[in-house]
Amino acid sequence: MSSSAAPPPPPRHPDYRFSLANERTLLAWLRTALALVAGGVAMTQFVPELGVPAGGPVVSVGLLLGGLGTALAGYRRYVRNEAAIAADEPLPAGPLAGWVTGLVAVVVVALLVLVVVEVVRG
Asked: Which has the closest alpha carbon to 31: 57, 85, 4, 70?
């Protein structure tokens, strides 16, 4: 008797392009986080008083916290997406992008109000 059984198929790997795209997305989140942190540092150095006493530091803290939150949210998203890619499942939907967008919008509105107060007083 001859054995004509086919060899087992090689293990299936996820398409590496998806993992690399996921990594690029993480890097985009990190660039955004770094920009928020840089903005927070710049506010502290160049605009200590903005419209109201301690206006600059308040916005700086918001930007720094936003940078931290964005970095952590981006990493969480990366890990969840990488697990879904490896399991060949749909990417999980989540509210992270909406939260980060909302946080940036709140900081921009606060900064806008402080700039208007500074201009009206000045």
From this structure: 70
